[in-house]
Amino acid sequence: MNCWKSGADNLKEVVELFEAGLELYRKKEWDKAEAYFQNVLKLKADDGPSKAFLLRIKELRETELPAEWDGVFVMKKK
């Protein structure tokens, strides 16, 4: 029995996990969002968007955001 999922199944799961993480990110639920993005990386270690959102979460945890924050991330350094 092959332990690897087919590429299509794997991609579908990656997309579903990422979308769930993104929804939680927009709600400022950092811990839950972080867990979803980490799970994406378990399936697709080179997923750039998940890596980027994990870095954003790290920065945003230390930032006071307005109540009406819309999920937009503004880079302050390069």
Average pLDDT reading: 86
Q: What oligomeric state do the depicted chains represent?
A: single chain
**Helicity level:** 55-70%
- The number of strands is 0
Strand content: under 5%
Based on helices, strands and strand pairing, what is the structural class? mainly alpha
End-to-end distance: 47 Å
Radius of gyration: 14 Å
Q: How many helices? A: 3
General shape? elongated
Low-confidence stretches: none
Q: Could you explain how this protein is built, in words?
A:
The protein has about 80 residues and is mainly alpha-helical. It has helices at about 5-25, 30-45, 50-60. The chain has a domain at about 5-60. α1 runs antiparallel to α2. The mean pLDDT is about 85.
Quick summary:
The protein is mainly alpha-helical and 78 residues long. It has helices at residues 7-26, 30-43, 48-60.
Structural topology:
Elements: H1 7-26, H2 30-43, H3 48-60
Helix pairs in contact: 1-2, 2-3
What labels would you give this structure?
mainly alpha; 78 residues; 60% helix
